[in-house]
């Protein structure tokens, strides 16, 4: 029997071309694995394309809820944003994809895992660090770095290669951005985006969204509730995290929310430009931040911002399966104990507008903050210094006592 290779298969141009290439170059039995992180209609026709291209088998593994609960939410709770703008949509998905690729490789007895990530990008690092952390014995094949064997240098070359092997593709080079999509976002690279002096062709590019100019001329109001940092309801309806993100994507996309054009610093040392659509994720992170404003004390907030930035760096660099990620996440989880409450927002032409926030654990005290109720220095307390500078702790204790009393009464 031939040795097996598990191919991380998206159905796109790169990974479709890899199927006949792997068979011809290594005489492998190619087992494709598509990990469904919420790609939507990109999964349509995938099995037919994989088999037509020469794969012996295709796994489509649905891990949407695991992706949302175990990978997206830790980043939301951490406030993890890379270089002020990027909400880590691709970065968060790679470790869970690597995990599933390893599981399938073990199940199939494969000797190797192959990915189609470019030799200039971040994903090669993310995939390979994840795979090696979980299965150091499995060989990794990275064709774009194997320049002696992989001779194709462009998307046009790959399209011609596929045509020569009788593979019909649903796209062409002239309208083919390099894209990555999951439930959290969709990224776009290539074509005019490779020239930073050129404006993005949004009419040809956008998938989840409209531009703010094309959004409705009226506001969309939403209400969300959170329990210990995790969203539980949207507009009064209890939903799973994946369902909330799906609905927020619809609402955010309709209102032009979360379109980012960024030149970012890749791990490999070069700058790259991309456009990200993250409508639902942008709303969810804004809502979570809005609630935390009421609840976290100043010192914790400052520490969390620093560690959140470091968490984003760790995730962006593909270091999910590391002690540092686990340690930062443990800190973040400890800060979410009281992040419970209701957030109201209005969406309008690309803007997210606060519309009110409440929490039983709010540290905001109207009687202290009001300009009409006297000065906080007027407190006649033998421990006046502690009363003033330990105020968050005192207010927290009062709030907890109030909540416990209400619970006992109910």
TrEMBL record:
<keyword id="KW-0436">Ligase</keyword>
<comment type="similarity">
    <text>Belongs to the argininosuccinate synthase family. Type 1 subfamily.</text>
</comment>
<feature type="binding site">
    <location>
        <position position="122"/>
    </location>
    <ligand>
        <name>L-citrulline</name>
    </ligand>
</feature>
<protein>
    <recommendedName>
        <fullName>Argininosuccinate synthase</fullName>
        <ecNumber>6.3.4.5</ecNumber>
    </recommendedName>
</protein>
<keyword id="KW-0055">Arginine biosynthesis</keyword>
<feature type="binding site">
    <location>
        <position position="118"/>
    </location>
    <ligand>
        <name>L-aspartate</name>
    </ligand>
</feature>
<feature type="domain" description="Arginosuccinate synthase C-terminal">
    <location>
        <begin position="177"/>
        <end position="395"/>
    </location>
</feature>
<comment type="pathway">
    <text>Amino-acid biosynthesis; L-arginine biosynthesis; L-arginine from L-ornithine and carbamoyl phosphate: step 2/3.</text>
</comment>
<feature type="binding site">
    <location>
        <position position="178"/>
    </location>
    <ligand>
        <name>L-citrulline</name>
    </ligand>
</feature>
<feature type="binding site">
    <location>
        <position position="126"/>
    </location>
    <ligand>
        <name>L-citrulline</name>
    </ligand>
</feature>
<feature type="binding site">
    <location>
        <position position="276"/>
    </location>
    <ligand>
        <name>L-citrulline</name>
    </ligand>
</feature>
<feature type="binding site">
    <location>
        <position position="264"/>
    </location>
    <ligand>
        <name>L-citrulline</name>
    </ligand>
</feature>
<dbReference type="InterPro" id="IPR001518">
    <property type="entry name" value="Arginosuc_synth"/>
</dbReference>
<keyword id="KW-0028">Amino-acid biosynthesis</keyword>
<dbReference type="InterPro" id="IPR048268">
    <property type="entry name" value="Arginosuc_syn_C"/>
</dbReference>
<feature type="binding site">
    <location>
        <position position="123"/>
    </location>
    <ligand>
        <name>L-aspartate</name>
    </ligand>
</feature>
<dbReference type="Pfam" id="PF00764">
    <property type="entry name" value="Arginosuc_synth"/>
</dbReference>
<comment type="subunit">
    <text>Homotetramer.</text>
</comment>
<dbReference type="InterPro" id="IPR023434">
    <property type="entry name" value="Arginosuc_synth_type_1_subfam"/>
</dbReference>
<dbReference type="GO" id="GO:0004055">
    <property type="term" value="F:argininosuccinate synthase activity"/>
</dbReference>
<feature type="binding site">
    <location>
        <position position="122"/>
    </location>
    <ligand>
        <name>L-aspartate</name>
    </ligand>
</feature>
<feature type="binding site">
    <location>
        <position position="116"/>
    </location>
    <ligand>
        <name>ATP</name>
    </ligand>
</feature>
<keyword id="KW-0963">Cytoplasm</keyword>
<feature type="domain" description="Arginosuccinate synthase-like N-terminal">
    <location>
        <begin position="4"/>
        <end position="167"/>
    </location>
</feature>
<feature type="binding site">
    <location>
        <position position="86"/>
    </location>
    <ligand>
        <name>L-citrulline</name>
    </ligand>
</feature>
<dbReference type="InterPro" id="IPR018223">
    <property type="entry name" value="Arginosuc_synth_CS"/>
</dbReference>
<dbReference type="InterPro" id="IPR014729">
    <property type="entry name" value="Rossmann-like_a/b/a_fold"/>
</dbReference>
<feature type="binding site">
    <location>
        <position position="91"/>
    </location>
    <ligand>
        <name>L-citrulline</name>
    </ligand>
</feature>
<feature type="binding site">
    <location>
        <position position="187"/>
    </location>
    <ligand>
        <name>L-citrulline</name>
    </ligand>
</feature>
<dbReference type="InterPro" id="IPR048267">
    <property type="entry name" value="Arginosuc_syn_N"/>
</dbReference>
<dbReference type="InterPro" id="IPR024074">
    <property type="entry name" value="AS_cat/multimer_dom_body"/>
</dbReference>
<feature type="binding site">
    <location>
        <begin position="8"/>
        <end position="16"/>
    </location>
    <ligand>
        <name>ATP</name>
    </ligand>
</feature>
<keyword id="KW-0067">ATP-binding</keyword>
<keyword id="KW-0547">Nucleotide-binding</keyword>
<dbReference type="Pfam" id="PF20979">
    <property type="entry name" value="Arginosuc_syn_C"/>
</dbReference>
